[in-house]
């Protein structure tokens, strides 16, 4: 377990060992969320829609709808990156 300090701008530096173990380099997109009183950080999945596609099968979501979600996700990522 490691500790870190938040800057006045809200920035937190992840310890080098954590970055190495998680294979996190500069520019890697991270998800930050809370569960109860915990703050959690995860690497953004390369295909977030794909991660839920297995769930979609159990929910009877049509494959076309999953495809449309994937297209919309790609569009939003391109906009965010300025493409």
TrEMBL record:
It comes from the Archaea. Residues 4-49 form the SpoVT-AbrB domain. SMART domains: SpoVT_AbrB. GO terms for molecular function: DNA binding. Pfam families: MazE_antitoxin (PF04014). SUPFAM superfamilies: AbrB/MazE/MraZ-like. This is AbrB/MazE/SpoVT family DNA-binding domain-containing protein. Keywords: DNA-binding.
């Amino acid at each position: 377990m490691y500790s870190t300090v938040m800057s006045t701008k809200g920035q937190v530096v992840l310890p080098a060992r954590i970055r190495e173990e998680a294979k996190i380099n500069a520019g890697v997109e991270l998800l930050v969320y809370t569960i109860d009183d915990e703050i959690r950080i995860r690497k953004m999945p390369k295909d977030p829609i794909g991660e839920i596609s297995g769930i979609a099968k159990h929910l009877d979501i049509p494959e076309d709808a999953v495809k449309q979600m994937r297209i919309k996700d790609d569009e939003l990522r391109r906009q965010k990156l300025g493409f």
